Amino acid sequence: MIIPLTTQTRRAGFANTVLIPAREAGQDLDSVALCHQVRAIDCRKLIHKIGELAPERLSEIELAVVFVLGLPS
Questions:
Q1: Distance between CA 27 and CA 14 in Å, rounded?
Q2: What residue ranges do the domains of the chain occupy?
């Protein structure tokens, strides 16, 4: 499963997005995880690792995905 990112930070602040500050996971700019666009892809399409998120940020993303999918939290 992947969650696309955008550098359009005006999208941050909604329950279905998570702000990822610049340099936190190897990116140069602030990014926003678009949790409402979660999708499955073939692992062979993942060519190289760009960075890694802290467990706290992953928890925020998990909560946003649970919200988007309407799952019990």
A1: 21
A2: 5-69
- The amino acid occupying position 2 is I
Regarding the domain delimited by 5-69, which CATH topology (the fold level of the hierarchy) does it fall under?
SH3 type barrels. (2.30.30)
Using an 8 Å Cβ cutoff, are 29 and 66 in contact?
no
70, two tokens: 């309407």
How confident is the model over 17-67, as pLDDT tens digits? 999 999 888 889 999 999 999 999 999 999 988 889 999 999 999 999 999
Ranges of beta strands (E only) in the chain are: 5-6, 17-20, 31-34
Q: Which of 50, 62, 57 is nearest to 21 (CA)?
A: 57
